[in-house]
């Protein structure tokens, strides 16, 4: 299963290069394809990502109908319903590959950085899923900086870079959360039936890169 997952991952990364190069090859975006899968589905990967309108997995991976099982939620924030959506893909659909897809310029990451550690009456469930990453960074003495030492309070290009670094840290946290809170996902990974690929989408280049 792991070899199959690696093959599917390479296929998706190649599809992303097609997207970047402006040479998409996807054909299965027609009614005929939909009718083929009218009563069943056979996705080869699950993608957990953000609801951001600029992050559309089927487009950036050059895919069509029936290829990806996609769960989207603002900030890729992960709670019980999201976990169960991924579990369904793993247990019921048997996908060998799970892609965790974070992205640049994420509004949730910026909002969390701006308001941490204050509790908010708005978006409290979302922030509850993001603040733990900032808690961990604070414990390590680095809540306000990224890997290059750039303060999160700075604005412009440097502040943007910091938010994008935070988004990648959040993607790593999501993987850890899934492994700790889902027996189905944990066992699938340990039994080499599931590969988790942590990825980040760069808006300026269109590239999806492994982190």
How would you summarize this macromolecular structure in one to three sentences?
The protein is of the alpha/beta class and 211 residues long. It has helices at 2-21, 31-36, 57-60, 80-91, 107-115, 124-128, 131-139, 156-181, 183-190; strands at 45-49, 68-72, 97-103, 195-201, 208-210.
Overall body shape: globular
CATH domain fold name: Beta-carbonic Anhydrase, Chain A
Structural class: alpha/beta
Q: Count of DSSP helices?
A: 9
Number of strands: 5
Task: Spell the H/E element sequence.
Answer: HHEHEHEHHHHHEE
Unreliably modeled segments:
143-156
Gyration radius from CA atoms, angstroms: 18 Å
Number of domains: 1
What share of the residues does DSSP label as strand, in percent?
5-15%
Q: Tell me the name of the CATH class.
A: Alpha Beta
Major β-sheet annotation: 5 strands, mixed
Question: What can you see in these coordinates?
Answer:
This protein is an alpha/beta fold. It has a single domain, classed as Beta-carbonic Anhydrase, Chain A (3-Layer(aba) Sandwich). The protein has nine helices and five strands, in the order H-H-E-H-E-H-E-H-H-H-H-H-E-E. It has helices at 2-21, 31-36, 57-60, 80-91, 107-115, 124-128, 131-139, 156-181, 183-190, and strands at 45-49, 68-72, 97-103, 195-201, 208-210. It has a five-stranded mixed β-sheet, with helices on both faces. Helix 8 (156-181) crosses helix 9 (183-190). It is globular.
What are its keywords?
211 residues, alpha/beta, Beta-carbonic Anhydrase, Chain A, 5-stranded mixed sheet, 9 helices, 5 strands, 47% helix
């Amino acid at each position: 299963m792991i070899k199959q997952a690696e093959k599917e991952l390479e296929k998706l990364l190649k599809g992303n290069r097609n997207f970047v190069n402006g040479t998409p090859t996807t054909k299965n975006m027609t009614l005929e394809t939909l009718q083929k899968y009218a009563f069943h589905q056979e996705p080869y990967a699950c993608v957990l990502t953000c609801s951001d309108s600029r992050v559309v997995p089927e487009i950036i991976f050059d895919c069509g109908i029936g290829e990806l099982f996609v769960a989207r939620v603002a900030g890729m924030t992960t709670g019980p319903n999201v976990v169960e959506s991924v579990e369904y893909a793993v247990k019921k659909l048997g996908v060998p590959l799970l892609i965790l897809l974070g992205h640049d310029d994420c509004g949730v990451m910026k909002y969390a950085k701006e308001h941490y550690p204050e509790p908010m009456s708005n978006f409290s469930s979302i922030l509850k899923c993001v603040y733990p990453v900032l808690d961990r960074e604070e414990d390590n003495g680095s809540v306000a900086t990224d890997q290059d030492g750039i303060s999160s309070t700075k604005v412009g290009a440097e502040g943007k870079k910091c938010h994008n670094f935070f988004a990648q840290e959040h993607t790593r946290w999501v993987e850890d959360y899934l492994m700790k809170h889902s027996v189905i996902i944990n066992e699938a990974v340990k039994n080499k039936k599931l590969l988790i690929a942590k990825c980040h989408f760069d808006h300026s280049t269109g590239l999806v890169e492994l982190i």
